[in-house]
């Protein structure tokens, strides 16, 4: 069974840690010993993106739920190649991972990436990122509907929070999501609270890091784990029951 799907069925917060390809065997061992829930492999930030190298990096994380992301430059990622090459990477990794993340704006490849995921029993996360602002609630709801209609198993919305009102907008999006599985994140200093408390409203993943520079508003893995366990007792009990 898909390992990430099984974790999502527990209806608990999940902590995802992003990794590039620097010393991935060490990073994978550290992720296992630290109790990382999901390893997000940022293929767009790999030093090499030829298929053999990428598949080798993915295999290093065998045994952990793995999310493969090849983030477009248009949405803050490091991908510098063409869309045909990006699609081919998604197709190659789909049989080896539990989920892929593709942007709603990537219309040239979106349908094919979702199809590749579903053909291999992987979840499709369809994402939207806005590094400048948090749009008004109507626009966000329309974005979430479009992602769901594109075949998303999980819709990810990540926007920049410049005022506390932005947190309320994003919280409303989560509360009103009905049957849509969602990840909702507020970026920026004001948004840090969302990374700990939005899981209580139904956000399925919170993202963090080990040993590199954080994304806007992120706390490191140790602090994120401590706070999630403190404020989500069900998650704490689950982690305590998992053998080290």
Q: Could you provide a short overview of the structure?
A:
The chain has helices at 3-8, 24-34, 51-59, 83-93, 110-119, 137-149, 164-175, 192-197, 221-231, 233-241, and strands at residues 14-19, 38-42, 66-69, 99-103, 123-130, 154-160, 182-187, 205-208. By secondary structure, it is α/β, with parallel strands linked by helices. Helix 9 (221-231) packs across helix 10 (233-241).
Topology of helices and strands:
Blueprint: H1 3-8, E1 14-19, H2 24-34, E2 38-42, H3 51-59, E3 66-69, H4 83-93, E4 99-103, H5 110-119, E5 123-130, H6 137-149, E6 154-160, H7 164-175, E7 182-187, H8 192-197, E8 205-208, H9 221-231, H10 233-241
Parallel strand pairs: 1-2, 1-8, 2-3, 3-4, 4-5, 5-6, 6-7
3D structure, described in words:
By secondary structure, the chain is an alpha/beta fold. The chain has a domain at 3-126 and 197-241: Aldolase class I (TIM Barrel, Alpha-Beta Barrel). It is built from ten helices and eight strands. The protein has an eight-stranded parallel sheet. Helix 9 (221-231) packs across helix 10 (233-241). The longest helix is centred in the middle third of the chain and has 13 residues, at 137-149. The mean pLDDT is 95.
